[in-house]
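Slides due. Your pick:
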Amino acid sequence: SLRKGDQGSPAGDSREASRRLMHFAVSDYLVDVVENALQAGSSHTEVAVRELGTELSVDVRDTGHGMSEAELEGALNPFFSGREKHPNRRVGLGLPFLKQLVDELGGDLSVGSNPGQGTSLRFTIPMSHVDAPPMGDLVGAFVDMLCYDGAYELVIHRERSGTAGENAYTLRRSELQEALGELETAASLRLLRQYI
């Protein structure tokens, strides 16, 4: 996750950095998509994670810079990276890895974007598929996304249903900041993690 002063480097030791860059779990893909939104200047990002039976559905909408059709096509190409966003990289693998995963599992991926209007992304995958990745640490991913530096609103909605019944919750970064005072100290992060 990006923290104040990290200049784009993942937090933690080198093993954590390597794991984060490899997209091991659904939570890794989700953090990558939200990080892209924030790097694209999104002031309001909405994330919905729905675990409905054996299907996982994820929606992300942002108010970032948006992309032209050509840029969107490039964003799905593993050998393309936006020069302004990633000046030191020649490739961008987040969305191509996500597309590959969705294709391999027989899921659906749709990405829509317009310059100056932001981007919307939706993917669904069958979690019952033998090659489906684990969910990973969703709570940790949510904490990471909520704690990026900067002035932005992030709304996270999570819904789960199954044999144990249904439950859902919505988190708003502004409300959490108001309740906790800040999202930077170990004490506030511990409370945030416990709350989620």
In short: The chain has seven helices and six strands.
